[in-house]
Amino acid sequence: MIINEGKFIQFDRILSKEAVLLMLEPHWVYNGSNGDNEGGMTHAYGFATHITTNTLNEDVVFPDRTM
Fold this sequence. Notes:
The protein is low in regular secondary structure. The protein is built from one helix and three strands; from the N terminus they run αβββ. β2 and β3 form a beta hairpin.
């Protein structure tokens, strides 16, 4: 549904485009003292989405982009 901007395959819209964008926005960003970053793997989190920040030697999945 995220790839399809809130639509379930070719059927009805379940989430608004605005809701999908809100889910992909960081709502918590680790600053070194505001929580547990799970050993360096979590530096930003959205509504039900883990967002990579490409922090060196920690949460890099693809060096040229965030996920």
